[in-house]
Amino acid sequence: MLPRFARLAAFLPGLLVPAALAFLSPATLAQEPPPARPRLSAGADTNSAAAYYFLGLDRLRADQFEVAATAFYWASRLAPDWADPLYGRRVALLLTRPDHLVAYMEDVESVVESPEVRHLDSLYYQALLLDPFLYTDLEYQVVMHYVTERELAELRRQYLRTDVELVRLQVEDKVRLYLRTPAAAGWRAWLAYAERRMDDAVKLYAEALKRARNDEHRYRTRLHLQRARSFYLANRRDSAVAELGRAIEENRRRDERVLARLYESKALLEHALGVALESNDDLTGARAAYGRALVEDLAFYPAHVRLGGLLAAAGDTAGARAEYELALEVAPEAPVVRILLANHHHGSGDHRAALTTLEPLLESEPYWAEPYLLRALALDGLGDREGAAAQYGKFLERTEAADDRRDAVARRLAALGSP
User: Fold this and answer.
1) Structural domains in the chain plus CATH codes
2) pLDDT tens for residues 75-125?
3) Taking each helix axis from N to C terminus, what angle separates 83-95 and 65-78, rounded to the nearest 10 degrees?
4) Cα–chain-centroid distance for residue 157?
5) Quick one: angle between helices 185-194 and 198-211, nearest 10?
6) Do residues 305 and 21 lie in contact, with contact meaning Cβ atoms separated by under 8 Å?
7) Helices and strands (H and E) in the chain: how many
8) What are 232-266's pLDDT values in tens digits?
9) Nearest Cα to 304, choosing from 286, 317, 291?
10) CA-CA distance, 155 to 162, in Å (whole number)?
């Protein structure tokens, strides 16, 4: 019956509350008026974040971008600890505005700095906080739609034609031809990454970096980072660590006057390095990387939480609590931080502190099942049978049908109802 943070458990298996996580402020999602839920297929579980996520992918491939964005929205509300729906929503919303898409891809400052686009970048940033090695294969659709829009604009300018399907076929032919040229090394590498051919991707990124020897540091940083992600997904963690070090060094050289996206922060790079070092069992190096992330940005709460996880794993309960509390201090609206701190209090037997920490989540994240289970456990620990029973019931109303904790919760609920 323990709380489950399955999407957060990628890097420190065996811990109840792993350090591999980060956090979504509800400011971007929970404070929006929720759109109507899109219709799932018959028999689908409306409590399942995965059901909405895969619906979003399906609608994205069908160019139904607004429906896709709504499906991703609901996946993220049901599972605020999952990075992929945030990333999917960012892609879907970007594709709903072809004019913004072109300007965004071409770094037009007035568009990149607009509130609407900064919101999209924020979604991507929050996704990377949750998973610095997020698999970003949906960029392929972004690129293809961008090239298509450029071709359409040219046709409108020259011939006043807007035959979208014809243009798409022409674009696909042009992209195939371009990918054969030496200048397309970076795109060939990215395509291998998108197709999960990671061994090919790392070789092609090395080729692209040789060709980009004289290019701007920002572009070279991106190539090193993407090569590191390919190494990581190929389970070549030593190489991922080395490549991230090169990305950080390249990033230090970049011109501060060049427009930088929110998701290109130095703290994020150090955080990714820390995660890679943890996965490689270099905990000393990981702690140092998280410390550097905090030097870059004192409000970078993922570093505090990961440090808390390391301390918890080492048996330093007080130190772990202090790091979790620092994370909450700089990010009081981050739901996963609250869950982790509440779980820490609960595990330490401080059930009242757990309840106090969880309280804001009842309003900000009413669709997420996890806070209700943790609240039930805390009330149960305090001997409040009636309160615990109510929260167990709310958990069962919200958790997906496939949740393997349902039977244990139902048995406890039945026991609480017995004289």
Assistant:
1) 334-419 (1.25.40.10)
2) 999 999 999 999 999 999 999 988 888 888 887 888 888 888 889 989 999
3) 160
4) 39
5) 160
6) yes
7) 22, 0
8) 999 999 999 999 999 999 888 765 555 555 566 88
9) 291
10) 7
